[in-house]
């Protein structure tokens, strides 16, 4: 009498972890944004695609759409991140600096952030800014970075006991100057050297002293 043979179970195919792994919402969002940032900082806007971000994060393309509504949402998150970096650089300016020296330090922080994060800057205010229509909350975040300059200008005006234009208007002029200067540097119309930095400082100080 032959013993009854136990039927063999068919081997199950190994899951495709790159596509089937679906972490919880917060972890997946962070993984996707980390992947997008790596690609973005290396290659800029042109390197980003939904499929590439998903593959790099080991998620499905559906995860990108469910969490960021596609490429536009990823660009929006990177836009916000850029202005967060600018805000942090401005917050790092020493509180002990007063008057025109504080205004100068804030303008230098703007310039340094633009050079440290060129792809973020291109999306925020540069030649790729047209790729994105920022949400109202993103626009508010961007505009809030003007407050640091506006407060410094207001404090300087109070210390000098002078009647000045509205401090937000002066801050906007300084911001516009910084943007124009950095744009010329990014296009290599201005050299990135000590002489250029001195010229930048002199121009900021002149605007801060007489913004009219």
Q: What does this 3D model show about the protein?
A:
There is one protein chain. Helices cover 68% and strands 0% of the residues. Helix 4 crosses helix 5 and helix 6 (99-116) packs parallel to helix 10. It has eleven helices and no strands. It has helices at residues 17-20, 25-43, 50-57, 61-68, 71-91, 99-116, 118-124, 136-144, 146-160, 167-186, 194-209. The chain is elongated and about 55 Å long. It has 212 residues and is mainly alpha-helical. The protein folds into two domains: 17-69, Arc Repressor Mutant, subunit A, CATH 1.10.10.60; 75-209, Tetracycline Repressor, domain 2 (Orthogonal Bundle). The longest helix is centred in the middle third of the chain and has 21 residues, at 71-91.
What attributes does this structure have?
mainly alpha; 2 domains; Arc Repressor Mutant, subunit A; single chain; 212 residues; 11 helices; Tetracycline Repressor, domain 2
């Amino acid at each position: 009498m032959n013993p009854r043979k136990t039927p063999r179970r068919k081997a199950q195919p190994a899951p495709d972890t790159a596509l089937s792994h679906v972490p919880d919402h917060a972890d997946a969002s962070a993984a996707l944004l980390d992947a997008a940032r790596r690609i973005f900082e290396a290659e800029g806007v042109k390197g980003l695609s939904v499929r590439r971000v998903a593959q790099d994060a080991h998620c499905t393309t559906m995860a990108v759409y469910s969490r960021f509504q596609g490429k536009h949402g990823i660009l929006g998150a990177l836009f916000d991140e850029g202005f967060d970096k600018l805000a942090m650089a401005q917050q790092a300016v020493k509180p002990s600096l007063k008057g025109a020296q504080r205004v100068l330090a804030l303008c230098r922080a703007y310039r340094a952030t633009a050079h440290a994060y060129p792809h973020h800057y291109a999306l925020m205010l540069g030649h790729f800014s047209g790729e994105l229509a920022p949400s109202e909350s993103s626009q508010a975040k961007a505009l809030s970075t003007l407050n640091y300059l506006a407060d410094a200008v207001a404090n300087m005006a109070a210390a000098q006991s002078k009647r000045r234009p509205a401090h937000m208007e002066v801050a906007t002029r300084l911001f516009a100057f910084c943007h124009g200067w950095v744009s010329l540097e990014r296009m290599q119309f201005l050299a990135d050297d000590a002489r250029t930095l001195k010229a930048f400082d002199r121009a900021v100080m002149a605007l801060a002293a007489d913004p009219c």
